[in-house]
Design a protein that fits this description.
42% of the residues lie in helices and 13% in strands. Strands 5-2-4-3-7 form a five-stranded antiparallel beta sheet. It has a two-stranded antiparallel sheet with strand order 1-6. Helix 2 runs antiparallel to helix 3, helix 4 packs antiparallel against helix 5 and helix 5 crosses helix 8.
Length: 254
């Protein structure tokens, strides 16, 4: 049996660790993850094989679009689920000044991709929204730490299908956050054939130097603040693309 044919009911602990590290590496490389997208293949009437092909079609268009805009590589974390319909969650980076153009292009990819694979277009197929505290941060209304905490929450939510690791504890949620997370306890997200979680090549953290976790006593949020500092200049460069937001405010103390 090939890896593509394997079947799973839940995410592995290794998937959680890779996703958490990918988010850290996105900060170091200036490709701060700032949009959350969900595609419901069942709503589009796409079978398992065509769903995977459609997603590849969608990502290829996103990759080429970003390259055309000189906006860097596609930086993305993706997780498949099969509860309430077969679908995928994506957490990715798009320069904020390009968001309006991206949303228009994304609608075109959706329409052309569904036509190519005989899918059905409707309002339930695609849900795409920005990480709210990222948008507020670049406009001066939230702190960098506010964004990082919401990024951590977004990764934890995507990893809710992991049952053999306490994702909330692994991500270092504080007491209030852990209490909220406890209301949505991890549970298997339905049967999925094929790779359940994937990371863009640019965010693969194996053999990265310096290491993402130099001190095991530090929390994920501590590591995120260090990596954001390391990638701040690269991140600032992305803000100059498209219709730039106001100048970033000075970093606030948490």
């Amino acid at each position: 049996m090939s890896y593509k044919e394997t079947y799973s009911e839940a995410l592995r602990a290794a998937d959680v660790r890779k996703a958490a590290d990918a988010a850290l590496l996105s900060l170091r490389r200036g490709l701060w993850l700032n949009r959350a997208t969900a595609i419901n293949f069942s709503a589009a009437k796409l079978g398992r094989s065509d769903a995977r092909k459609f997603l590849q079609f969608y990502k290829n268009h996103a990759r080429r679009w970003l390259a055309k805009k000189r906006a860097g590589p596609l930086a993305c974390i993706e997780v498949f689920e099969n509860t309430g319909g077969y679908g995928v969650h994506l957490l990715l980076h798009v320069p904020v000044g390009l968001w309006p153009q991206y949303e228009k292009a994304q609608a075109q990819w959706l329409t052309s991709g569904l036509a190519k694979y005989d899918g059905v277009e409707n309002l339930s197929v695609l849900r795409d929204q920005p990480i709210i505290n990222y948008r507020s941060f670049v406009r001066g209304g939230a702190s960098e730490r506010d964004y990082l905490k919401q990024l951590r929450g977004a990764v934890r939510y995507m990893m809710k299908g992991a049952t053999r690791i306490n994702t909330a504890a692994f991500m270092g949620l504080d007491d209030d956050e852990a209490a909220t997370a406890a209301k949505s306890k991890p549970f298997p997200q339905g049967g999925v054939w094929g790779r359940r979680a994937s990371i863009s090549h640019v965010l693969l953290s194996s053999s990265v130097r310096p290491p993402l976790h130099p001190d095991p006593k530090l929390s994920w949020l501590d590591d995120a603040e260090r990596e954001a500092e390391a990638g701040r200049i690269l991140h600032h460069a992305t803000l100059a693309l498209g219709d730039p937001p106001p100048t970033l405010p000075p970093r606030r103390k948490p």
